[in-house]
Amino acid sequence: MTYTLVLLRHGESEWNAKNLFTGWVDVPLSEKGRAEAVHGGELLKEAGVLPDLLFTSLLRRAIMTANLALDAADRHWIPVERSWRLNERHYGALQGKNKKEIRDQYGEDQFMQWRRSYDVPPPAIELGSEFSQDADVRYAGEPIPRTECLKDVLGRALPYWDGTIVPAIRTGRTVMVAAHGNSLRAIVKHLDGISDDDIAGLNIPTGIPLVYELDERTLAPVKRGGTYLDPDAQAKIDAVANQGR
Ligand SMILES: O=C(O)[C@@H](CO)OP(=O)(O)O
């Protein structure tokens, strides 16, 4: 027997469309992003992959994507749990900055190191600045970061994965996790056993359900990398990889 897990990155956000580093800034979906979310739900329905339980971050782009997708799949009624531990990676002082401008200013190597290296975080955000979340009530009392690299994301997402999501998967229910490019990259790194170097090359497209069948005993993926429910996923993966150009 296997367990079924669905990973869903939010649809395009208004800041994805403007090519801005987003991180923990709580921006809405764009019109295109809302359509992607609905299409993602239709793909789930067509494939007969029907989530029983939902986990999301605390950011509206993931929450709205899940709502729209589940509504399209007639699964709008399933229970949901949310955690900041599934939030996008905190992009530090880069939050709100244009990706192309940062690349032009600092050069390709520094840009890619900040964007995709495993363990080099961008400079920390200044507390109280426009795109800082230090005064946001939803994080009150939580040990929230001022910047994060992917290693930091794994460090805060893994306790939630192991302590909350894995026990839910083990009940045999189909679990859906609606989250973000980098929080999902962290989960996929863990699931697929991707090395610290190779994870730089992994990009996750917006709004396309990624379905994993997991071995009942070990929770190892039956197929490494899982299966995207959209045959055009590769073009969207390439578009994420090429942001900032
Ligand atoms: O800006 C961000 O928060 C993320 C996801 O949109 O961007 P990137 O793919 O560059 O890590």
From TrEMBL:
Keywords: Gluconeogenesis, Glycolysis, Isomerase. The keyword Amino-acid biosynthesis does not apply. Pathway: Carbohydrate degradation; glycolysis; pyruvate from D-glyceraldehyde 3-phosphate: step 3/5. It catalyses: (2R)-2-phosphoglycerate = (2R)-3-phosphoglycerate. The record marks 180 as: Transition state stabilizer. It comes from the Bacteria. Substrate binds at residues 9-16, 22-23, 61, 88-91, 99, 115-116, 181-182. The active site is at 10 (tele-phosphohistidine intermediate), 88 (proton donor/acceptor). Its EC number is 5.4.2.11. It holds the Pfam family His_Phos_1. PROSITE patterns: PG_MUTASE. It is an enzyme of class 5 (isomerase). HAMAP family: PGAM_GpmA. This is 2,3-bisphosphoglycerate-dependent phosphoglycerate mutase.
